[in-house]
Amino acid sequence: MTDTFLGMPAFPQAAAEAVRDGQLRANLRHATHTIRDKRARAVAELSDWAELRAAGKAIKDHTLRHLDRYLVQLEESVTAAGGTVHWAADAEEANRIVAGLVRATGETEVVKVKSMATQEIGLNEALAAEGITAYETDLAELIVQLGDDRPSHILVPAIHRNRAEIREIFAERMAAWGRPAPEGLTDTPAELAEAARLHLREKFLRAQVAISGANFMVAETGTLVVVESEGNGWMCLTLPRALISVVGIEKVVPTWRDLEVFLQLLPRSSTAERMNPYTSLWTGTTEGDGPSEFHLVLLDNGRTAALADQVGRQALRCIRCSACLNVCPVYERAGGHAYGSVYPGPIGAILTPQLRGTASPVDASLPYASSLCGACYEVCPVAIDIPEVLVHLRERVAEQGGHPAERAAIAAAGYVLDHPALLTAAERLAGRTRALHPRRLPGPGRAWTDTRDLPEVPAEPFRDWWRKNRP
């Protein structure tokens, strides 16, 4: 399976290739416009949406400021309820812990509830290396897995596929993973869903180990929460005898009262529903009810480093609703794969460089994968100021050193701006020679003017105009 983003090119190169795919752009345009229009109507139903949004932001900010205390409380609550807590500093440690727990059961198969944290750490590949097969049970994740593909959206990982493509994937690949697709399968949604249900049912009934993520963890009681739309989460969280949950440390909330706020914000922002069809909650283990063995793996993997950044830490408020993706003009045209991360779109452009650093070309390019239009901030249910963080991260990338020509241009501009007389002379010279200015920049600047016009230089500098008109 190629569900990995290692070796992906930087965003400009990946996006340039993606925008040439007419089918991809049509799929994305149809899906994102449909979801965002429904979301707008669902949000408009609530007269107190702004207050809910402010409450969600405040709860998240408070929790992040006191994250150490709430994580310790969470561990104590989970342990008291019969669960076992493991701490993983990075992806390698998390994968090692999970593989060891699965091996201890003697099983070689696991079923999975959709979990971005396990995709982030490459868990499926790590388990495969240990001889353990992980079966995705979310419909969109199943499509991605059967298609030997990568997820391209937070909420709908197969958003880049249309119904005809899904039918073809099911018909050609289902048999290699278990029960084959029915003969004569069409691309109607009902038939595709039924084919997936039949294919997955045998796995649910056979599996003894499940792996999940969590949308939220309640420190007060040690309760974990998964919201989903298909019932696959409910099956994974109740039928197997062992449950392993891999969750980022930022997913904790202090109390049940806090959870109430997010269970109103999340469904309307993600699926444009008043509430999720399935909201599964579990607290430790209970004899005769659900798994008899529960393990919680708390994942850092760069989150502590992000927490230390006073501007960037707001990315950790994210509740993975995907609203920012559905309004982003860049995502709509380039698609999720161009971001080279399991977290695409605007939130990925600020979260991934903080989790992975900006040393690689793809991570250094992500803060620039935006027009800074601000639509993402307007729809974010926890008020993450994504444009602010993007500019902040661009500054960090620039401090690492960019192209030699870029560094020289910035140094020259800085010198001119530090010397007012020189700046005045440069402005007057630019105004008097504007008829000679080229329409495109030469050399390395050519790429900049390939996609935008050079600003027109006025005939008279502003300061000269001010002296004449404002004595």
Automatic annotation (TrEMBL):
<feature type="domain" description="4Fe-4S ferredoxin-type">
    <location>
        <begin position="315"/>
        <end position="384"/>
    </location>
</feature>
<feature type="domain" description="LUD">
    <location>
        <begin position="73"/>
        <end position="298"/>
    </location>
</feature>
<dbReference type="Pfam" id="PF02589">
    <property type="entry name" value="LUD_dom"/>
</dbReference>
<keyword id="KW-0813">Transport</keyword>
<dbReference type="InterPro" id="IPR037171">
    <property type="entry name" value="NagB/RpiA_transferase-like"/>
</dbReference>
<feature type="region of interest" description="Disordered">
    <location>
        <begin position="434"/>
        <end position="454"/>
    </location>
</feature>
<dbReference type="InterPro" id="IPR003741">
    <property type="entry name" value="LUD_dom"/>
</dbReference>
<dbReference type="InterPro" id="IPR004452">
    <property type="entry name" value="LutB/LldF"/>
</dbReference>
<keyword id="KW-0004">4Fe-4S</keyword>
<keyword id="KW-0411">Iron-sulfur</keyword>
<keyword id="KW-0249">Electron transport</keyword>
<dbReference type="InterPro" id="IPR024185">
    <property type="entry name" value="FTHF_cligase-like_sf"/>
</dbReference>
<dbReference type="Pfam" id="PF11870">
    <property type="entry name" value="LutB_C"/>
</dbReference>
<keyword id="KW-0479">Metal-binding</keyword>
<feature type="domain" description="Lactate utilization protein B C-terminal">
    <location>
        <begin position="399"/>
        <end position="468"/>
    </location>
</feature>
<dbReference type="InterPro" id="IPR017896">
    <property type="entry name" value="4Fe4S_Fe-S-bd"/>
</dbReference>
<dbReference type="Pfam" id="PF13183">
    <property type="entry name" value="Fer4_8"/>
</dbReference>
<dbReference type="GO" id="GO:0051539">
    <property type="term" value="F:4 iron, 4 sulfur cluster binding"/>
</dbReference>
<dbReference type="InterPro" id="IPR024569">
    <property type="entry name" value="LutB_C"/>
</dbReference>
<dbReference type="GO" id="GO:0046872">
    <property type="term" value="F:metal ion binding"/>
</dbReference>
<keyword id="KW-0408">Iron</keyword>
<dbReference type="InterPro" id="IPR009051">
    <property type="entry name" value="Helical_ferredxn"/>
</dbReference>
<keyword id="KW-0677">Repeat</keyword>
<dbReference type="GO" id="GO:0006089">
    <property type="term" value="P:lactate metabolic process"/>
</dbReference>
<dbReference type="InterPro" id="IPR017900">
    <property type="entry name" value="4Fe4S_Fe_S_CS"/>
</dbReference>
<protein>
    <submittedName>
        <fullName>Lactate utilization protein</fullName>
    </submittedName>
</protein>
